Amino acid sequence: MTSFALRPSADGLWTGLRDPGGAPLALAVADGVLRWAGAPDAVPAAWAGARVHDGAGALVTPGLVDCHTHLVYGGQRANEFAMRLAGASYEEVAKAGGGIVSSVRATREASEDALFASASARLENLLAEGVCAIEIKSGYGLALDHERKQLRVARRLAQAHGVTVRTTFLGAHALPPEYAGRSQAYVDLVCREMLPALAAEELVDAVDVFCERIAFSLDETERVFQAARALGLPVKLHAEQLSDMGGAALAARYGALSCDHVEHLSQAGIEAMQAAGTVAVLLPGAFYTLRDTQLPPIAALREAGVPMAVSTDHNPGTSPALSLLLMVNMACTLFRLTVPEALDGVTRHAARALGLQGTHGGLIVGQSANFVLWDVREAAELAYWFGQRPVRTVVRQGRIAVGEGA
Questions:
Q1: Residues facing 239 on adjacent strands
Q2: Is 212 in contact with 242 (CB distance < 8 Å)?
Q3: Which residues pair with 59 in a beta bridge?
Q4: What are the DSSP calls for 300-367, one per residue?
Q5: Would the pLDDT of 1 be above 60?
Q6: Stretch 221-240: mean pLDDT, rounded?
Q7: pTM exceeding the 0.85 threshold for the entire prediction
Q8: Three-state SS for 64?
Q9: Which residue, of 156, 173, 273, 310, is most buried by count of CB atoms within 10 Å of its CB?
Q10: Coil, strand, or helix at residue 49?
């Protein structure tokens, strides 16, 4: 793999651009940072001799942010997909050795290098579509050494691909087989051993829990949140996906960055999230794959002013999605987001869901140069097309990652 550091610099004046509203735009980049943005006829004289990158009328947006993924894992579960289509129940799939236990087994058996190779191939699909920042969760190791292995791979991916990666410890994803029927003992392990050790190794940027009847209770979730708070780590939550557990309100009390899925989110949960500034992360890929019928409360979230992000939720079981643009389309068609809402959902709101609003998600002077040039006439096309990749150029971390001689 070619070192990302060897990619050409994006420094210079980027002209011939249009913003999502169709207005002409120019951008100036120096030392990998966006230094100026404005109308082409108002470029400061200091940029008169700069190298010019001609956008030739391309639409420009901030670099995309995929704020909820489980990208690092062993194996895959296509056979379960086929089993469910043939009528197998969740219990039947599990009895056949499927479900999350299958991914845990494959992840534990895989070497770090093997996990890196498979995750790297998946990541390249997302990067080619304009992703400039991504969250990667653990949660398929469910033991210290294997959770560490997943998080180490996530750190390696960031360095190898020149992409911002936020790691999330999801040790409380499911009960590992060896702790069946002993959830309290496993939560003890997560809080007292796994999380402190991984945080000390600087492998954890945030902490997540799957709070659901088939996973962890409110009390168990709060114990993990307390452990995260003691270590100074922000929290997130898989909340209200299958039922209303009250997890969103709990997460909001801990100042959660985001609550994700939220199909069964209550009005009380919405109000708590609004007060805390917590982002609602919508995951239409899982909704689609599971053939769910309970829509997230989009209108109520919109009315309350809760920011809504959109993500792939890439995982081997319920959302094997490798296109964030497809999720934009699904968010519009399935969840009835408007085009501006969906695009904000994969840029500025997604950045906020990762605590990256100060560095990503906007074309803001002083931020790292992360932006995408698109071969489309209007912004609506980014939600309209699926199965097409209209990327012309991707500038990621101040370097030209796709297009223009990259």
A1: 261
A2: yes
A3: 18, 374
A4: HHHHHT--EEE----BTTTB----HHHHHHHHHHTT---HHHHHHHTTHHHHHHTT-TTTSSS--TTS
A5: no
A6: 98
A7: yes
A8: strand
A9: 310
A10: coil
Helix/strand/coil for 164: strand
Q: Cα(336)–Cα(279) distance, rounded to whole angstroms?
A: 18
**DSSP state, residue 194:** I
Q: Cβ of 45: how many Cβ atoms within 10 Å?
A: 6
147-178 burial code (b ≥16 CB/10 A, e <16): bbbbbbbbebbbeebbbbbbbbbbbbbbbbee
Q: What is the pLDDT of residues 42-75, one digit of tens each?
A: 999 999 999 999 999 999 999 999 999 999 999 9
Share of the chain above pLDDT 70, in %: 98
Question: What does residue 219 show for φ and ψ, rounded to 5 degrees?
Answer: -65, -45
Residue 154's nearest CA partner among 126, 116, 121 is: 116
Sheet containing 279-282, strands listed edge to edge, beginning at the edge strand earlier in sequence: 236-239, 258-261, 279-282, 308-310
What gap in Å lies between CA 401 and CA 131, rounded to an integer? 11
- pLDDT at position 91 over 70: no
Give the largest CA-CA distance in the chain: 70
Q: How far apart are CA 406 and CA 401, in angstroms?
A: 6
Residue among 131, 166, 134 nearest 61 (CA)? 131
CA–CA distances in Å: residue 185 to residues 70, 182, 278: 25, 5, 30
DSSP of 87-138, one letter per residue? T--HHHHHHTT-THHHHHHHHHHS-HHHHHHHHHHHHHHHHHTTEEEEEEE-
Paired tokens of 149 = 């292995």
Distance of alpha carbon 110 from its chain centroid, rounded?
A: 24
Find the angle CA(138)-CA(141)-CA(146) to the nearest 5 degrees. 100
Cα separation, 80 vs 143, in Å, equals 24
